[in-house]
Amino acid sequence: MKTPLTAEKRSHGSPNRNEHQYNGLINQGATCYLNAVLQCLFMTPKFRETVMSYEIAHGDCGETNLLLQLKKLFEQLSERAATTEGITKSLGIRNVFEQQDAVEYYRKILKTVETHASEVFEGKMSNIMKCGKCGKETRDTNTFISILLSINVGNSETYDVENGLETVLKHSKLEEDDWMYCDSCDCKTETETWSEIDEYPSVLTLHLKRFDFDYIQMRYKKNECCLDVPPSLHNKDNRPKYDLYAVVNHKGGFSGGHYNAIIRSENGIWFYFDDYIVTQTSETSLKNSSLPYMLMYRKAVLSPGSVPHPKSLSHPVKSLPHPVKIPHSMRILLIGPSRAGKSTDTLKM
Questions:
Q1: Closest CA to 208 of 168, 291, 151, 146
Q2: How many domains does the chain have?
Q3: CA-based torsion, 154, 195, 116, 90: positive or negative
Q4: Which Pfam families match (predicted)?
Q5: Nearest to 146 by CA among 195, 198, 208, 87
Q6: Which residues, in sequence order, are CB contacts of 29 under 8 Å at separation 6+?
Q7: Domain assignment of residue 339, yes or no
Q8: If we measure between CA atoms, which residue out of 82, 91, 145 comes closest to residue 273?
């Protein structure tokens, strides 16, 4: 395949003639949410290569084949600005003038494509419950493609992403009304619960729960707290090091607004993707910002198709111990609700 760049250069700073410009996506009306997600997927080398290598069956030109439509889009995007009309039709999006949730469609795309294409984003997580009386543990293991980070600060405070991720995995004791029934004890007992990531994905996707329902005003409200997006998630508790490479931003409220993306290219240069417009930028734009909504981190290992952060090259990363395989069938776990408040969704594999 050809390198997905053009010779034209537009930059916020002084031009560097050794760099090239990526191409944008045409907004059909209010499809910025889809454009931002598709650019992040296109700029994920392993996913892009899998999509581009998809072999089209003879006579297969159906609008419902999302993998085929992604292949066509990526081929066009490698040469020039592209349209997402094939994608919207494949996803069943009828009203392109109605804004949707970017995270919801990130999930939907990865659920719809074949597993071999989405596996770069998939990890395995166990939800564990422990009986406080006999100590028996019950483990439910699922495959996840994103992790929801609850926000526990106000609009005027600064959110810590590392602490948010630790909160997802921390131990907690259920209220007595929520105690679980223990078969061994033959009664409801004090229950401790926590989560463990058994297998970390090549790409770790985190999304912030910025939208929550206000039962006093009876409407959804957005938490617009600022955060300094960490450039790396460092090794901790068997977690490998991850380097940031893509951020989906949202500006506006629940009923409307605008999405764009800031993505690090394969040669380490940051670009700002705003529908048709693509300009060079820097990661300083992610400092103390209230816009980040979805964060994508790449595992910092030297392997084909992965691009380590330049600062990590002088620090060798220990590989993650081989995880224990779970013998029972797995399910795609989409952790947490979308901004529309939909419940956790699972898909049988």
A1: 151
A2: 1
A3: negative
A4: UCH (PF00443)
A5: 208
A6: 96, 97
A7: yes
A8: 82
Type of residue found at 20: H
Q: What one-letter code names the amino acid at 84?
A: T
Q: How far is 240 from 301, CA to CA, in rounded Å?
A: 9
* Within a domain: 42: yes
Cα Rg of the chain, angstroms: 21
The CA distance from 311 to 241, in Å, is: 12
| Identity of the residue numbered 7 | A
Domain that holds residue 232: 32-348
* pTM exceeding 0.85: no
Report yes or no on 12 lying in a domain: no
- The domain that contains 227 carries what CATH number? 3.90.70.10
The H or E element that residue 263 is part of is: strand 257-264
Strands (E), the chain: 123-131, 137-149, 158-159, 172-173, 180-182, 187-189, 191-199, 203-208, 211-214, 219-222, 226-227, 232-233, 242-252, 257-264, 270-274, 277-281, 292-299, 331-334, 345-348
Residue type for 98, please? Answer: E
Whether 283 is in a domain gets the answer: yes
Q: Dihedral, CA atoms, 84, 5, 101, 329, nearest 10 degrees?
A: 90
* pLDDT on residue 321: 41
Residue 263's DSSP bridge partners are 246, 271
Residue range 102-153, pLDDT digits in tens: 999 999 999 999 778 999 999 999 999 999 999 999 999 999 999 999 999 9
C-alpha span between 237 and 170 (Å, rounded):
12
